[in-house]
Q: What sequence folds into this?
């Protein structure tokens, strides 16, 4: 149950950071001088979740986190099912999905477990974007 416990904690953090009100607040607060944008936050978050693993092995805790994050980005992009997200957030979510797709496609050397995980992430992105017409 260690993996479930860790993923539960990770999900709570992601739920807060990727909440539509939080992302909209970042965009709206730029008018008042906030310099940390949705773009900055999603780039930082994506890097924190993926960048360290691009050139090596992905442990099972991070595999769970990466798949959950990709699923959340896909839900943000889905214009038909989630009108709560603004267009800035949707655009950046799509941008991050494309970045993940490109980064994972470049790296082919890894263990069978990591290779299978990367294939799964790429499959989810491809299927999710195809379903959304993105």
A:
């Amino acid at each position: 149950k260690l993996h479930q416990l860790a993923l539960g904690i990770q999900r709570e953090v992601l739920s807060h950071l990727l909440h539509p009100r939080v992302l909209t607040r970042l965009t709206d607060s730029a008018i008042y001088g906030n310099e940390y944008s949705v773009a900055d936050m999603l780039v930082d978050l994506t890097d924190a979740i993926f960048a360290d693993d691009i050139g090596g092995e992905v442990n099972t805790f991070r595999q769970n986190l990466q798949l959950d994050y990709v699923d959340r980005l896909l839900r943000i992009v889905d214009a038909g099912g989630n009108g709560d997200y603004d267009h800035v957030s949707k655009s950046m979510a799509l941008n991050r999905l494309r970045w993940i797709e490109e980064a994972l496609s470049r790296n082919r050397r890894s263990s069978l477990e990591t290779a299978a995980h990367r294939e799964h992430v790429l499959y989810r992105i491809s299927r999710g974007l195809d379903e959304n017409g993105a």
